[in-house]
Amino acid sequence: MKIAIVGTGYVGLVTGTCFAEIGVDVICVDTNTEKIESLQKGIIPIYEPGLEDLVLRNSKSGRLTFTTSLADCLNDVEVVFCAVGTPPDEDGSADLSYVLSVARTIGQNMNKYVLVVTKSTVPVGTAKKVRKAIQEELDKRGVSLEFDVASNPEFLKEGNAVADFMSPDRVVVGIESERAEKVMTKLYRPFLLNNMRVIFMDIPSAEMTKYAANAMLATRISFMNDIANLCELVGADVNMVRSGIGSDSRIGRKFLYPGIGYGGSCFPKDVKALIKTAEQNGYPMRVLQAVEEVNENQKGILFEKLGKLFDGKLEGKTIAVWGLAFKPETDDMREAPALVLIEKMKAAGCNIRVYDPIAMEECKRKIGDAVYYAPDLYDAVLDADAVMLLTEWKELRLPSWQVIHKAMNGNIVLDGRNIYDKKEIEEQGFIYHCIGK
User: Fold this and answer.
1) Cβ distance 330 to 44 under 8 Å?
2) Among 81, 239, 240, 328, which one has the highest count of C-beta atoms within 10 angstroms of its own C-beta?
3) Is residue 336 a contact partner of residue 263, using CB atoms and an 8 Å limit?
């Protein structure tokens, strides 16, 4: 079986590579010539554990190839996955211009049946727009060809995407014909050997499932952050509360960790897009509006704590920041709390020293030389008045506090992910603050 994946970003590259790993012939397409040339040389544009080895192995075998022309490969493939970006517009809605551009290219160049599958996260109703765009181009050419449109939303976690794809909780497929169902069943059959569930449904339901899943997870995060903030005010320990409610089988323990807010490429964008979709249909998503508001406030919570500890006198203070990516095992800084905190501290006149195992270059790309980039976590704390933990990378979980105490000018530790032991750190002479205690 031969397929094309349009878009070699996070979703497209992982999807194409993993399909190649199970024996599918995959052509990855992108209009970015520089990116395609790099991939052809084995240079991976994103950081994702395990991905580079898979790309190199499947490229060498010939099952995974890269091109800049969808038109040239379109008639050699049975399925085209659209995995291009859907960035938020100014009003929060998803920008479908790249998705519809792919659809028009398909309509302009197809000469046989093809199944077009939206892998990008798109609002309900996008499949109809894709179908219309393809049909309009066929009509312009004066040709009559059969094609199908389907929805196959991704549920990949950055930092664990390869494992998620190879052993998913479920695969959701929205289809509108028996032919499309047969094609998708054939494509996912190797995964069925591991008792993986493929859930077929109508296309609007599949499109909504992706948004609803991310919105639910974002809601749990903001709910726990709200609870954590209240715990601090009333003298409760949010970790105790989390353990207590997480033991309820109806609630469960996942995504109940308080912190400094969610970021990344999915949750912020998808929550905004779902709110906008509801607004366009005359319905206010009041819960999600609150989820978004809580999250934006939570990103600045460590700055508020820092200001109180220094009585608002932050000018000239040196602050060490550990962790820049929005989560461990990725270099992704989209909507990262670190960006919000750095901006607030710079505005207050702080000197900032940062360290992240992976995301330093990405941070430089986003904010330039606004901060000092330390070569390691210990250099970051030199002469610092306070240190902030923003991303719970493994190498940051058990530092030498004795060395850190000697290197710092002050003794304040702000733990934005609640990973350190308060008693242990205070015994080393630090003032320790976290979230929800």
Assistant:
1) no
2) 81
3) yes
Spatial distance between the Cα atoms of 256 and 225, rounded to a whole number of angstroms: 9
Q: Is residue 347 within 8 Å of residue 317, measured between CB atoms?
A: no
Rounded to an integer, what is the distance from CA 266 to the centroid of its chain?
5
Known catalytic residues are 266
End-to-end CA distance of the chain: 55
Residue 304, pLDDT score? 97
Q: For residues 370 and 397, is the Cβ–Cβ distance under 8 A?
A: no
Q: Hunting for tokens 């066929």 — which residue is that?
A: 138
Which candidate, 276, 236, 216, 263, places its Cα nearest to that of 95?
Answer: 276
The number of beta carbons lying within 10 Å of the beta carbon of residue 157 is 14
Q: What are phi and psi of 150, to 5 degrees?
A: -140, 165
DSSP E strand boundaries for 76-205: 79-82, 114-118, 147-151, 171-174, 198-201
182 vs 113: CA distance, rounded Å: 14
pTM of the model: 0.89
CB atoms within 10 A of CB 172: 21
DSSP SS3 for 372: strand
pLDDT per residue as tens digits for the range 180-229: 999 999 999 887 776 668 899 999 999 999 999 999 999 999 999 999 99
Quick check: helix, strand or coil at residue 151?
Answer: strand
Collapsing DSSP states into helix, strand and coil, what is residue 212?
Answer: helix
Distances (CA, A) of 89 to 102, 159, 276: 19, 27, 10
Whether the CB-CB separation of 77 and 113 falls below 8 Å is answered with no
Output b/e per residue, 374-396; b: 16+ Cβ within 10 A.
Answer: beebbebbeebbbbbbbbbbeeb
Tokens 């059969």 sit at which residue?
Answer: 146
Give the pLDDT of residue 197: 81
The string of pLDDT tens digits covering residues 378-424 is 999 999 999 999 999 999 999 999 999 999 999 999 999 999 999 99
Cα separation, 185 vs 10, whole angstroms: 24
Domains with residue ranges and CATH for the chain: 2-201 (3.40.50.720), 211-297 (3.40.50.720), 299-433 (3.40.50.720)
* 320 residue type, one letter: A
CB 328 within 8 A of CB 313: no
Q: Show the tokens assigned to 208.
A: 């909504």
Looking at the chain, the whole-number percentage of residues with pLDDT higher than 90 is: 88
Angstrom CA distances, 375 to 290, 415, 435, stand at 39, 21, 28
